[in-house]
Write a structure and sequence with these properties.
The complex is a heterodimer of chains A (about 240) and B (about 190). Chain A has about 240 residues and is α+β, with helices and mostly antiparallel strands. In chain A, helix 1 packs across helix 2. The longest helix of chain A has 17 residues, at about 40-55. Chain A has 5 helices and 9 strands, in the order H-H-H-H-E-E-H-E-E-E-E-E-E-E. In chain A, a hairpin with a 4-residue loop joins strand 6 and strand 7 (about 185-190). Chain A has helices spanning about 5-15, 20-35, 40-55, 70-80, 125-135, and strands spanning about 85, 100-105, 140-145, 150-155, 160-165, 175-180, 185-190, 200-205, 210-220. Chain A folds into 2 domains: about 5-60, no CATH class; about 80-235, no CATH class. Chain A is globular, with a radius of gyration of 19 Å. In chain A, the strands form 2 sheets. Chain A has a 6-stranded antiparallel beta sheet, covered by helices on one side. In chain A, strands 7-6-9 form a 3-stranded antiparallel beta sheet, with no helix packed on it. Chain B has 2 domains: about 1-120, Rna Polymerase Sigma Factor, Chain: A, CATH 1.10.1740; about 120-190, Orthogonal Bundle (Arc Repressor Mutant, subunit A). The N and C termini of chain B lie close together (about 10 Å). Classes of the chains: A alpha+beta (about 240), B mainly alpha (about 190). Chains A and B meet through helix 1, helix 3, helix 4 and helix 5 of A and helix 2, helix 3, helix 4, helix 5 and helix 6 of B.
Chain lengths: ~240, ~190
């Protein structure tokens, strides 16, 4: 395990270039959540390396993209608006009208769950979590059980569910994430761990609008009407 | 701050409030750099188009992902493009390796990129500075940076390809990044 600034920054240089693999990537994840937020020197170096990585792009010769690309983007802008993959949690919406839920880069529709069996955590998603951690030094972490945790920041309408070594549910089942308040539960997203056991789900939701998150285990594709069995009862 | 960066900030501010004209202007400014980068990393026009499409859609849908306090818009956006390109090329190479093993297919043939384009003068100036900074690195440091950044290779893959210890790749990467940082801060 890395505990010195020099070694940490050597790792951050590789991280900024997106060139870490396996063990080093896992160590970088740990650094980014545990060390970097509290270390101004490493935070500054990470920002500097990420800036260099952005500048390096200019070494490539600019090339005109095909003409149909911008109209294609315009069509999608018209079709999808600005809110990303908006989740409408069925019957429970009325019970929690004040909670606006948008499943972001880490969340997925059921039809996308299959992809996760073969995919790795996209580096851009890890980057998103890293940026969140770095930008909000006073993080709130709430264990969810199953090696997963909720990472949020006071006053910020965005939170992450992140975990490593998260066990897979039995075949045919998925994890289901709920925002639970005193009198109701609102379905947020379904998810499966990546093949290496990593979970990374980003939610655009105000943590102040519910009491706690709950993870249940449910049949894949089932109607998210009300929470079933807790996935990890040890979370309390 | 350069004039071009200041203009980008204003365009991003307008984009954040839903101004599609500002989006189109940012596209006009950066689509060429983004496509050139994505093409260089992926080596295929169709993949490069997907990368640029996804990056601009991400910008439109979540403009707040860019924090002006952490540097120019340009570096944020092109880093986003790079991340997506590397993700895609690694996924594609895994899929291709599997399908080639299964069907004994020939590797995909390289394509010719479209013509180079004219661009904003401030981008051209910065491009020249970046190239000079990169050219100023010791060759062994430049090599590992280029293999990682444009080749989308991991440090482990680079060590294997070059036949050098992983620790050496890490050391060269770190040293190269620090030198680039110093050189680019001097000119930026």
């Amino acid at each position: 395990m890395i505990d010195g600034h020099g070694e940490a920054q050597e790792l951050l240089a590789g991280y900024a270039l997106q060139s870490l693999s396996d063990e080093d990537a896992a160590e970088a994840d740990r650094l980014l959540t545990e060390h970097v937020p509290g270390c101004s020197e490493c935070r500054m170096m990470l920002d500097a390396f990420q800036a260099v990585a952005g500048e390096l792009a200019l070494e490539a010769e600019p090339v005109a993209p095909p003409d149909p690309l911008l109209p294609r983007i315009h069509r999608e802008m018209d079709a999808r608006g600005r809110s990303g993959m908006r989740w409408t949690p069925g019957r429970l919406v009325a019970a929690a009208a004040s909670v606006v839920l948008v499943v972001g880069v880490g969340g997925m529709a059921l039809s996308q769950l299959e992809d996760r069996k073969t995919a790795q955590v996209p580096a851009a998603d890890v980057q998103g979590l890293a940026d969140f951690v770095v930008q909000h030094p006073t993080l709130l972490r709430q264990p969810l059980g199953g090696n997963a945790q909720e990472i949020s920041a006071q006053g910020v309408q965005e939170l992450y569910v992140y975990g490593r070594g998260v066990p897979f549910p039995a075949p045919g089942l998925v994890y289901r994430l709920w925002a639970v308040s005193r009198h109701h539960a609102t379905h947020l997203s379904d998810f499966l761990p990546y093949p290496d056991g990593t979970v990374l789900v980003r939610l655009e939701v105000d943590p102040a609008t519910f009491d706690h998150l709950l993870v249940t285990v449910e049949p894949a594709g089932s109607e998210p009407s009300e929470p079933g069995d807790p996935a990890w009862p040890e979370a309390g | 701050m350069r004039d071009g960066d200041r203009e980008d900030l204003e365009l991003h501010r307008r984009l954040s409030s839903g101004d599609r004209g500002a989006f189109d202007e940012l596209y006009r400014r950066y689509a060429g750099s983004a496509y050139g980068l994505a093409y260089r990393v992926t080596g295929q026009q169709i993949l490069a188009q997907d990368v640029v499409h996804d990056a601009f859609m991400a910008l439109w849908r979540t403009p707040e992902a860019y924090d002006p306090g952490r540097g120019p818009f340009r570096t944020f956006f092109l880093a986003l493009v790079h991340h997506r390109a590397v993700d895609l090329v690694r996924r594609e190479s895994r899929l291709r390796a599997r399908s080639e093993r299964a069907a004994n297919l020939e590797p995909l043939v390289g394509e010719d990129p479209a013509d180079a384009i004219a661009e904003e003068s401030y981008l051209g100036v910065r491009r020249k500075e970046v190239r000079e900074a990169l050219a100023g690195l010791p060759p062994e440091q430049r090599q590992v940076l280029e293999m990682a950044y444009f080749g989308g290779k991991t440090q482990v893959q680079i060590a294997e390809e070059l036949g050098i210890p992983l620790g050496t790749v890490k050391t060269r990467t770190f040293a190269g990044m620090r030198k680039l940082r110093a050189a680019l801060e001097e000119t930026g």
